[in-house]
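User: Need the bound-state model for zinc ion:
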Amino acid sequence: MMRRLLPAMLLLTALTGCGDEPAGADGKLPVVTAFYPLQFVSERVGGDAVDVSTLTKPGAEPHDVELTARQVGEVSDAGLIVYLAGFQPAVDDAVKQNGGDRAFDAATAVETINATEADAHAEGEEEHSGVDPHVWLDPTRLAGIADKVAERLGKADPAHAADFTARAATLRTELTALDGEFTTGLANCARRELVTSHTAFGYLADRYELTQIGITGIDPETEPSPQRLAAVAAEAKEHGTTTIFFETLVSPKVAETIAKEVGAQTAVLDPVEGLADGSADYFSVMRANLAALKLGLECS
Ligand SMILES: [Zn+2]
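Assistant: Bound-state model below.
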C-alpha cells in the first residue's frame, strides 16, 4: 500500500512546491534587485512584507557587475527579481537562466529613449542595444516603475497587494514633488548644455529640456577617443561651459582633462547607480544633483 502511494505523494509535493510562492525564513517575500534605484523602489513599495537584497554592492559601479555563485542562487530563490534588461550583462544572464516569470524588467514600465549620438560613436557600442538604460534619473519614470513593482509584488503576495499599491502611490507623490523642484529649478538657466563624463543623464535632460554632451558614453569605463575628447572640448567652448560634471564611482580624470582644456571647473553629478554614502537615498542624491546643476548652469 505504502509503495503504491509514495510516487503519487512525491508528485503532489512537487506540484504544490511549484505553486508555492518562495518565502524567506521570516515569511517575508524575498525580492532580489539588480542595483540601487531598483532596491530603493522595492524597499519603499514592499515595506515590511518583503526582504530586499541587491546584486550590486553599495559604492560599486554597477554596469560591469560580476555575480558570485551565492548571488546566482539568490536569483533562483527570489519571489520577485527586479532588474533592467540591457544594463548589466551578468544580471541579464542570471535572469535568463534562473529568473523565469519571476523576473520583472523595469525598462518595460517606461518609455525608453535611445542613447545619444555621442554614444553611437563610442567604442564597444555594439554591447548596447541603443537604448539608454538610465531611466531612473527621471523621477516621473521611476514612479511608473514603482507602480509596476507594486503590481508584481501584489501578484506574488496577494495578501499585501493593497499595501503595495498604497505605498507606490505615496512614493509617486514624493517623486512628483521632486519632479516639480527640478522643473522650477532648471526653468531659467544661463546655459542648457550639460557636459558630463558618464553619459547617464539622457532621461534627466529629456525631462527638463537640457542638452546632454557626454564624454565617455553609456558605460562610464569606456575610454573616450582623442577625437571624442577634442569634439567635446570644442562644443563646451562654443557653449561657454563653465562646469564639467563627473560622477563619484569612477575616476574624474576624463572630466578634468576637458575642464583644463576649456578652462572650466568640475563638479559632481551623481547617476544614483550605487550609493557610496549609507545615509543618502535617492531623494537626497537627486536634490544634491539639482543644486549642482543650478550652480553649474547658472540657473536663477
Ligand atoms: Zn551608467
